[in-house]
Design goal:
Chain A is an all-alpha fold and 448 residues long. Chain A has one domain: Up-down Bundle (Formate dehydrogenase/DMSO reductase fold), CATH 1.20.1630. Chain A is 71% helix and 0% strand. The longest helix of chain A is centred in the middle third of the chain and has 34 residues. Chain B has a four-stranded antiparallel beta sheet with strand order 2-3-1-4. Classes of the chains: A mainly alpha (448), B alpha+beta (172).
């Protein structure tokens, strides 16, 4: 054999195309491992609780939630931003890393794209249910009405509708496009209702070499389009805040701040999902320590952006000479919510620094614990931005704390349940690693 | 009824050589079936330069749609928001951008299905007993029995000579 490919260790172990495909299709074709059943059951139970909480919201109204003057954006918006942010890693891995020709993405893109899909779906429910009159949700769309009213396109809230819908559409199409060759393979390997399902979904893909050329052209094109969308979506979300005059929101740094936070939280969630998945399905040969190391490095890079802006925010609040801004900063650091603020700083600024050291990045237990902590840290960040800012604006008479109710908590746990349930069903039906792309990578690594 | 011949090659280089030879011998109704994109196929079977141009056209359409939507709705119901100019175009950029991407994405996906002839309910090559191999680790050439140069024994011999394992694909 000639010189080894520099990425030869991205697929470890002795494989042939056949055994590799068998391995990658195991989650779909073999009986599921026990932890899968647990995740499915827990996810399903929480999804039911979620539906009940939505039912309560619709029957009793928003009074069932903890929002009240002046904190009218509570958990609903905290969790909307949290979930949307988590989605970003999937698109980043699948789109930006395609353009950069990073071979390590091939093991990770399918499961993270699925993560994106369910995270964005979970996120999209929050704006819908927090409308006072959810039956009129379609008023956010531009349609000719007898009232002759249109959405106000100078408002970021109107931009947000289109940004999220575009994001949901492009991530779904990207995921589906990537699945088509695998669906054709599954169609030929399965029987019964599965054969019908894969047959329908594969659209009759045959593997025609000319089709493949066009397919790759469109795939790379969509990657190129998804890349600016990832950046734009969370930037637009951040403008929902930055357009407001609330101290702590009215900052031009918000778009890059949110985009960095989104990528950071998304990679954290990807690590939280991939580390157990790899263990339960014995995927160590295709999701190697090098993959996890790369993910940790991206987490570190995006996390450093977040940490930098935390520190910058403090400086700007002081330097701007705006009393309300500075009072808001002191309220965050010393007020009743200070433990939340300092916990956020501890995780996203201090503990993050451990990822500089290979010893920590290679320690899977720490990496897993840190990914969970980073999810919490990013939740705290959104809590700081949304709730703490609103609880302390310009007039002391308006300073009030926020008290979430059991409905708020159930809605949150419910979306986590829906997310886990959706992913569990997804990887039972569709391979969590892109088979065609992995086989292609296998060729590249072994034949050169 | 004979649909055609399916030839299985074990390496992409053999596939490319076989395609070249078949084209030189005048075969036209044939398809290469591969588990992943094979470099060099476009030189033999012809490339397709339409996709970037169609995407560009869809992009222009998307920009137009985005701007039209916002300019029209603003003029239809003029509303003074914070003293900003009525057609303050910088505020229209985010929606224009999102609609551009949305138009290209959906449009190019449908265009891809259209030029690839998908969805396709049935394809004769899929009837081959060993068809799954070309989705896995082998490279197939399907020669239609309707090709003017097709001759069951002659074509079979030619494909074997090129290093293939050959299967007759018939309607069952």
């Amino acid at each position: 054999m000639a010189e080894r490919h520099p990425d030869h260790d991205l697929i470890q172990g002795e494989w042939t195309e056949k055994t590799l495909v068998e391995k990658l299709l195991e989650p779909v074709e073999k009986p599921p491992p026990r932890p899968w059943k647990v995740v499915l059951a827990v996810g399903f139970a929480l999804t039911l609780a979620w539906l009940y909480a939505i039912f309560v919201t619709f029957v009793k109204g928003l009074g069932a939630w903890g929002i009240n003057q002046p904190v009218l954006w509570g958990f609903d918006i905290v969790h909307f931003v949290w979930w949307i942010g988590i989605g970003h890693a999937g698109t980043l891995i699948s789109a930006i890393l395609v353009l950069m020709r990073q071979n390590w993405r091939d093991s990770l893109n399918r499961v993270t794209e699925a993560m994106t899909l369910f995270a964005v779906l979970a996120a999209a429910t929050y704006p819908l249910i927090h409308m006072g009159r959810p039956q009129h949700f379609y008023w956010v769309m531009p349609y000719p009405t007898h009232m002759a009213l249109w959405p106000q396109y100078k408002s970021p809230l109107s931009w947000d509708v289109l940004a999220i819908m575009t994001y949901l559409t492009i991530s779904t199409l990207f995921l589906y496009l990537g699945l088509i060759p695998d669906l054709a393979l599954l169609r030929e390997r399965s029987t019964g209702w599965r054969r019908k399902l894969y047959g329908w979904l594969s659209l009759g893909w045959t593997g025609n070499a000319v089709h493949w050329q066009r397919y790759r052209a469109v795939y790379v094109l969509l990657a190129g389009l998804a890349t600016p969308v990832v950046i734009s979506v969370h930037s637009v979300v951040s403008m929902d805040f930055a357009y407001g005059l609330v101290p702590g929101w009215h900052l031009t740094v918000f778009p890059p701040f949110f985009a960095a936070g989104a990528i950071y939280s998304g990679f954290a969630m990807a690590l939280t999902l991939i580390i157990p998945l790899r263990r339960w399905y014995r995927l160590e040969g295709v999701i190697t320590e090098r993959h996890l190391d790369w993910m940790a490095k991206v987490t570190l890079a995006s996390g450093l952006g977040v940490a930098y802006i935390y520190l910058l925010e403090i400086f700007i609040a002081w330097y701007a000479g705006e009393p309300a801004e500075w009072a808001q900063q002191l309220w965050r650091m010393t007020g009743p919510y200070a433990p939340y603020y300092w916990a956020m700083m501890l995780i996203n600024v201090v503990l993050l620094q451990t990822l500089w050291f290979p010893r920590f990045r290679k320690n899977l237990a720490w990496l897993f614990v840190f990914s969970l902590l980073a999810n919490v840290g990013m939740w705290l960040e959104r809590f700081v931005i949304v709730v703490i800012s609103l609880s302390h604006d310009f007039l002391p008479g308006n300073f009030h704390l926020y008290h979430p109710t059991w409905v708020d908590w159930t809605l949150f746990l419910g979306t986590i349940g829906f997310f886990l349930f959706g992913l569990a069903v997804f990887i039972r039906l569709f391979p969590p690693i892109a088979v065609a792309e992995m086989v292609h990578l296998f060729h590249k690594l072994r034949r050169h | 009824m004979l649909y055609g011949l399916m030839a299985y090659f074990d390496a992409p280089e053999k596939l490319l050589r076989a395609l070249k030879v078949l084209r030189e011998r005048g075969y036209r109704r044939l398809e290469a079936l591969t588990p992943n994109p094979v470099e060099g196929v476009e030189e033999v079977l012809g490339g397709d330069g339409r996709i970037p141009w169609v995407a560009f056209g869809l992009g222009v359409l998307g920009v137009g749609l985005g701007l039209f939507l916002q300019v029209y709705t603003t003029l239809d119901y003029p509303h003074n928001a914070g003293g900003k100019p009525l057609l303050g175009w910088p505020a229209f950029i985010p929606v224009t951008f999102e609609l551009t991407i949305l138009t290209i994405t959906v449009g190019i996906f449908l265009f891809l299905l259209y030029i690839n002839g998908l969805p396709l309910a049935a394809h004769p090559a899929v009837k081959a007993k060993e068809y799954v191999r070309v989705l896995l680790d082998e490279y197939g050439v399907f020669v239609y029995a309707t090709d003017p140069r097709f001759d069951l024994e002659g074509t079979k011999a030619l494909l074997r000579e090129l290093g293939a394992e050959v299967e007759e694909v018939r309607r069952d």
